[in-house]
Amino acid sequence: MKMQVKLILAVSAIFLLAAVMAAVTKKPAAACGEDDFRKFLSAYEAKVVPLSKDVALAGFQASISGKDEDFKRSADLQIQLNTITADPAEFARLKAFKAGGQVREPLLKRQLDIIYDSYLENQIPIAQMEAMVKLQAQIEQKFNTFRAQVDGKTLTDNGIEQILRASADSRQLEAAWKGSKEIGRLVAPDILQLVRLRNAAARQLGFADFRDMQLRLGEQDPLAIESLFDELDALTRDGFAVLKKNIDAFLAARCSIPVEQLMPWHYQNRYFQEAPVIYPVDLDVYYKDKDVVQIAGGYFKGMGLPLDDVIARSDLFEKPGKYQHAFSSDIDRSGDARVLCSVKPDSYWMNTLLHEFGHSAYSKFNDPRLPWTLRDAAHAFTTEAIANLFGRFASSPAWMRDMSLLSAAEAQRIAAPSRDALRLQQMVFSRWAQVMFRFEKSMYEDPDQDLNRRWWELVEKYQLLKMPAGRNEPDWAAKIHIALYPCYYHNYLLGELLASQLMYHISGRVLQAADVENQSFAGRPEVGRFLVDSVFKPGMRWPWNEMIERATGEKLTAKYYARQFVGEK
Ligand SMILES: [Zn+2]
């Protein structure tokens, strides 16, 4: 997954002060025709384009080395970049360009809108910005240093997850789960203060609340996103209830308790965001001793999306001190994309590599004729969709067969349990994403309500879990995204919806194949051609939903996701 760290949270107050001082000495307002905006653009690009490349390179380097001095250099460059969009005098000019209405040429107007929004969210008084940055850092540190105390032992998050997955002892599971929630109590007051500050800042900028601002700045109409979530809720509710019964029967037997006694700690994960392992498929056996980098590279080449240069510049294997999560970085929006990960020959890393190469292909095969500002993914979730589209193939028997990882007969044999496992994973995640989406909405609308209770109302409604009797703890605050990656979580689910929409469109319309489940896209250059022309090259030329409609004939819809994972016709 790729996390977008919002500028609003990273800006340094000192550099903002410098920007304000510069503004005081600025000349009176200039003219605001298209030629004036072109001049503004050249000056903007002259500053931002080379600096953005330096930021990306420094970030990539720091993630490889893990050295303090590399991280410091990376942070300093990021601050320099953020300072540019905090400049109130330049923002005033952008405002004048917008109000003047003379910038009409479509690509110019589009750039104006996007650059305006990136400045807008940084036009917050320094004291307020500083208070938010401080709180954010304080919360981050509490999360970094928190270790759960369980039965007299100190455990990391991985240690907790390991117990939840492996143990069948209800008492031990309860202790581990409850121990992991203690962080909630430590950070909840800070988060509430931060939520109020974020709301105040957003209201000053003319938005209803912080969430309203976050969504609108990403060109997401909050009501339209909510109706997609409603649609998906309706489509998954009954299917999930059936699957949940299967899960419950399996877990109750596993822990030797009656189904009625199942509690949130029995579901093999702190949040029930991942599917418990209830189907017997072990995909790792097909990947051991395999060169997953070569497989992924060959696969993309077969679709006419060669990534040899990306692979050559990437850092793909474990190293001491190296960042342990995977990501793809678009270094210069001019073809230099790189992946950082620590591959091993198993299905998890096959999935991750296909996922990250999906991001890289989106970056590499952009339209060099588009202005720099528009040469990026239509939205963070659209590049996530491409990444998920390919990542999912790592557990597709049809794909593994076409990549010669198993025989046709073996693919046939594991088809049913593989499909069940993938469906379970998607259904469990989608119900959990409903909780996150609705809780954040509710919290920013009214941070003074009984949030502890609100959280469990949603968990009971969407995930069908039972609140432990009498529990009144800030369990919502234990989920790090609530504090540090605010109002972003819904994009993960939108990425899954679009991945399914593209899967059906490519299989049905581009490849003219009726059997979606049997498609792997292996050796099909028409798939690469479609993606380059209809998704990658458009970049940010159009708002994301217009790109999706032009590419697939429909706006973003939950219907194909439901068809793929719920069996809805
Ligand atoms: Zn991703």
Number of strands: 4
Low-confidence stretches are 1-28
Residue-averaged pLDDT, rounded? 92
* Sequence of strands across the biggest β-sheet: 1-2
List SSEs in N-to-C order: HHHHHHHEEHHHHHHEEHHHHHHHHHH
**Number of helical stretches of at least 4 residues:** 23
Unique bound compounds: zinc ion
Strand content: under 5%
**Judging from the principal axes of the Cα atoms, what is the shape?**
globular
Main beta sheet? 2 strands, antiparallel
Labels describing this entry:
mainly alpha; two-stranded antiparallel ribbon; 2% strand; disordered N terminus; binds zinc ion
List the helices and strands and how they pair.
Elements: H1 7-10, H2 13-24, H3 34-65, H4 68-86, H5 88-100, H6 106-120, H7 126-145, E1 148-150, E2 153-155, H8 157-166, H9 170-204, H10 210-217, H11 222-254, H12 292-302, H13 308-313, E3 327-330, E4 337-340, H14 347-364, H15 380-391, H16 397-402, H17 408-445, H18 451-463, H19 480-484, H20 490-510, H21 525-536, H22 544-552, H23 559-565
Summarize the entry for a quick read:
The protein has 23 helices and four strands. The protein has helices at residues 7-10, 13-24, 34-65, 68-86, 88-100, 106-120, 126-145, 157-166, 170-204, 210-217, 222-254, 292-302, 308-313, 347-364, 380-391, 397-402, 408-445, 451-463, 480-484, 490-510, 525-536, 544-552, 559-565, and strands at 148-150, 153-155, 327-330, 337-340.
